[in-house]
Amino acid sequence: MTEIETMSFEDAMRELEATVAKLEHGEATLDESIALYERGAALRAHCDKVLRAAEERVEKITLAANGQSTGSVPVEGL
């Protein structure tokens, strides 16, 4: 498992925002910019993955006839 894969969504988003800001300022060398872009792409992919998993969990929440939550079905259990 890579370092990025162990990051929380919030930590990955903060680093992604900082990475984008560095790229926007244009003060990095070409090689540094490429490395920043690659890391940013990996951070974005991780955020997308974590967000999709959270959305799937929310979609699996089961409701009773009266609309009250009766629990949830973990995505892993499907």
From TrEMBL:
Its EC number is 3.1.11.6. It comes from the Bacteria. It is found in: Cytoplasm. Gene3D superfamilies: Exonuclease VII, small subunit. Heterooligomer composed of large and small subunits. Keywords: Cytoplasm, Exonuclease, Hydrolase, Nuclease. It catalyses: Exonucleolytic cleavage in either 5'- to 3'- or 3'- to 5'-direction to yield nucleoside 5'-phosphates. GO terms for cellular component: cytosol; exodeoxyribonuclease VII complex. Bidirectionally degrades single-stranded DNA into large acid-insoluble oligonucleotides, which are then degraded further into small acid-soluble oligonucleotides. GO terms for molecular function: exodeoxyribonuclease VII activity. This is Exodeoxyribonuclease 7 small subunit. Belongs to the XseB family. One of its GO terms (biological process) is DNA catabolic process. InterPro entries: Exonuc_VII_S, Exonuc_VII_ssu_sf. The keyword Hydrolase applies. The keyword Transmembrane helix does not apply. PANTHER family: EXODEOXYRIBONUCLEASE 7 SMALL SUBUNIT.
